[in-house]
Amino acid sequence: MNLSAAKAVDRYVGIAVCHVLAALRGLREMFAARRELLEPRTILLVKFWGLGNIVLLLPVIRLLRARYPDARLVFVSFARNRDLLEECDELDVRLYVRDDSVLALLSTLLATIVRARRARPDLCIDFEQFARASAIVAVLAGARQIVGLSVPGQSRAALHHKPVPYDDTQHMGQTYLDLARAAGVPQRTYRPAALRVTAAGREQSERLLLDARISGPLIIMHPGSGDNFQGRRWPAASFSRLADCLVEEEGASVVVTGTASEGALTARIVAGMRHADRAIDGAGRLGVAGLVALLSRSTLLVTNDTAPVHLGSALGVPVFAFFGPNTPLLYGPLSPGSHAFYRDLPCSPCLTNMNYKTSLCRMPVCIRDITVDEVALRIRAHLGERSEGSEGSEHGERSEHRDHRDGGAGRAARTA
Question: Tens digit of pLDDT for each residue in 239-266?
Fold first, then answer.
């Protein structure tokens, strides 16, 4: 289903449905008997959009499991997030909604609501930050207590029994933890959680690298940005120049990753390199598990503001990420050694949780004007520190996954 159409339906239809449901529930609860206090036996978790957001949620799910070890955890999401959620052992039930067509969306959404209602959830945590569909699902599933974000102008808070004020100045990982804290989780500070490298994922990555001449630092480049606003993408020519620079100066090997639909983009980057023989075009050749396995053996990741930022952070891989339309305050990398490049122009950020992450900008100078030289300088400095003996301590930091609040997101480059 077209993303713009889905946003329009959620905005214009969703707001009306929210008001109707809020009014009906208000009338019912005016005459209903006072309910007993809850100790949740079934917890419904809802998060539709964003593979990267699902990555950020994984440590929160683990904390919920620790807080409610005997509860049944039911997660509702889009089927596109299946690969990650199937590896989350803390979940008991996973309900998937398909969004590849309008008919599939409506039929699977209805079936999901019916199954969620049969689970009789005592508590629902609505992790969406702007879409109204999740709050509607929570109400129709009959959740006796709903925790969710109160975002200005979203008309969703009326459906939440415990609205949590949205803070646009903190990382989304911390925001997700705040929602869990409102549901009883005691931990106050968000920390990334390690991802498991599966045997199937390792096989995918090894097959990709099988015939390649890999030597020196293994650099992963992810030039795509999903299907939401291509103004988030650093120019393809800049990726090509940076790859050549790292090959020539650091003896690096480069893998350019992407989805099958991003094949033309990755092919253009490799073709634009002088040292294309030192690069691998991995578009469409790795699933999520394969990308996780590849990242786990890499030296560092260079990427736009998209899901691999959070995959790399969860693995403890240094991430060098480009931000412009979005801000690293919300989605910056958290792993040690990471860096977010961000111009912080007067018009930035133009993709926010208050505007459905929708931008009309057709001249994204905020990201186009990040130079190859400044990126190469920052990466060279990191590799120099690594070669001087920091590799051992970095490995320890990866294993511990301690608090990374002073990591990449806090060191965003803010140059004019």
Answer: 999 999 999 999 999 999 999 999 999 9
pLDDT tens digits along 57-108? 999 999 999 999 999 999 999 999 999 999 999 999 999 999 888 899 999 9
Contact indicator for 268, 186 with CB cutoff of 8 Å: no
Residue 5 token pair: 């159409």
User: What is the domain extent for residue 398?
Assistant: 199-414
Among 408, 409, 405, 403, smallest CA distance to 327 is for 409
On whether both 393 and 296 belong to a single domain, the answer is yes
φ/ψ of 209, rounded to 5, equals -90, 0
User: Are 229 and 362 a contacting pair, CB within 8 Å?
Assistant: no
In this structure, are 43 and 160 located in the same domain? Answer: yes
Helix axes 236-250, 263-271, angle to 10 degrees: 50
Domain identity same for 374 and 253: yes
Among candidates 344, 362, 316, 311, which has minimal Cα distance to 412? 344
* Maximum alpha-carbon separation in the chain: 74
Q: pTM of the full predicted structure?
A: 0.88
Report yes or no on 87 lying in a domain. yes
Number of domains in the chain: 2
Q: Are residues 103 and 19 in the same domain?
A: yes
In this structure, are residues 339 and 300 in contact, taking their beta carbons and an 8 Å threshold? no
